[in-house]
Amino acid sequence: MTAHTLDELLADGVRGRHVLVRSDLNVPLDGSTVTDDGRVRASLPVISKLAEAGARVIVMAHLGRPKGMPEEKYSLRPAVDRLAELASFPVRLADDVVGPSARELSAELGDGEVLVLENVRFDARETSKIDAEREDLARELAALTGADDAPRGAYVDDAFGAVHRKHASVYDIASILPSYLGELVRAEVEVLKRLTEGAERPYVVVLGGSKVSDKLAVIDNLIGKADRLLVGGGMLFTFLAAQGHKVGSSLLERDQIPTVQAYLERATAAGTEFVLPTDVVVASKFAADAEHEVASADAIEETGFGEAGIGLDIGPDTAAAFAKEIAGAKTVFWNGPMGVFEFPAFAAGTKAVAQALADATAAGALTVVGGGDSAAAVRTLGFADSQFGHISTGGGASLEYLEGKELPGLTALGA
């Protein structure tokens, strides 16, 4: 099966038709304020194309992880308000997912108007492990398009950040309505294919974030494919411990040490080099105003903080070494910050990597920022999206793609 495209749907004509669009509006919030509108901006082009073509657009999206029932802190209202600010067409938010508000407002939609359903995860069936429950919700979502009058209704998946989930609005709906691949999802898949199918070398992967356990599968799949794996973030301390170093009170997954040791041994034979930090910024505590000093990676407990010292960023020598490796690459994938970038005192490592990627982009390399915290970090630190080859909207989805996993949302579309 070959995925149908948005262009095919538009060519068939959408004026007067209800089109369900799965978008990614899972934005970070500070109270009711959107702190990074990258996903809203990335969702806007497909919604705009459909609205401008006269479709009656019904957007499905989630935010956070509510427990299958409405929770005010997870309302899509802040994201929808931002979408309305950016859009050139009317945007409304339903009070529910498939309830009276959703049914009434979808029926009232005019050509070129947009309705966003409230957080689909407010309905427990969205994420249910029971197929029949998800399918039931999918049928109710499809009914909002007048699906009984097929082929009037249609479904477009433009939420790459959710394609790795077997959820009703991602997977089951695609078997009910004529389904199409959104431009954002298509672009993400094209970029990730370049990373997995003959990436131009040297191919450098930069991995950070807090837990090494979150990255084990992708590390396993990249050994023998990437030329170098640069390791930072909280996960670096498990690697240092695997080399026999003491890490003080730094984040450590002791149970993963044997696995990391096996990876280090296997990588050498497979032609992949792990590049690990040689210095670390060690703090007295986990706090923005904590005292801190730079220590050699093999002497973390020899700082003035002793065993209580906690590593919160890669050191300047490591940042320079990582930048040099990135500068020599033709392909770079980065997922996970190098330190606690939210605290200015511990953001230098992440900023150095971001700058190195921006410089590599300008020099002609393919650079991919793998969504999630990495995407938030580059924007927080003052970089523009245009300084990178591609910023993914789906950190988890991009990692699972690089792991070689089958992503349910893509399978359902035939992509």
How many helix segments? 14
Radius of gyration over all CA atoms, rounded: 23 Å
Amount of helix: 25-40%
Could you give the distance between the termini?
8 Å
Strand content: 15-25%
Largest sheet strand order: 5-6-4-1-7-8
Average residue-wise pLDDT? 94
Shape: elongated
By secondary-structure content and strand pairing, the structural class works out as alpha/beta
The largest sheet is: 6 strands, parallel
**Low-confidence residue ranges:** none
- Beta strand count: 17
Explain how this protein is built.
This protein is of the alpha/beta class. The protein is about 35% helix and about 15% strand. The protein has helices at about 5-10, 40-50, 75-85, 100-110, 130-145, 185-195, 215-220, 235-240, 255-270, 315-325, 350-360, 370-380, 395-405, 410-415, and strands at about 20, 30, 35, 55-60, 90-95, 115, 155, 180, 205, 230, 275, 280-285, 290-295, 310-315, 330-335, 365-370, 390. It has a six-stranded parallel beta sheet, sandwiched between helices. A six-stranded parallel beta sheet has the order 11-10-9-15-16-17, sandwiched between helices. A three-stranded antiparallel beta sheet has the order 13-12-14. A hairpin with a 2-residue loop joins strand 2 and strand 3 (about 35). Helix 7 crosses helix 13, helix 8 packs across helix 9 (about 255-270) and helix 10 (about 315-325) runs parallel beside helix 11 (about 350-360). It is elongated and about 70 Å long.
